[in-house]
Amino acid sequence: MKFYYKISMNILLNFLSISHDTNPIHQQINAVIPGNLLVVLLEKNYQQHFNQVPTAIKINFQQPAYLNDNLLFEISLTKFQITNSIEQLIAEGGWQFD
Prior knowledge:
- With 98 residues, this protein is of the alpha+beta class.
- It is 28% helix and 31% strand.
């Protein structure tokens, strides 16, 4: 499964409020997207597409994603990756099940 997602200021601010994230790098004009927000998007889409709930996730962040980046999420039953619009790897990893 593949999908593109652009994280807007509204989505970011809602996530920061819910998560009580006060890190200034997530609140500047060219904000860095919190890794936990990317994990939430990965897990939500995995569960909706595959009708399974992973028990754990292993993720390696390679570089930051920024506000309004057009991100490509590629998700399979066992692994995933996120890249930006210039095909730089943001994160990769895999799902774990009991």
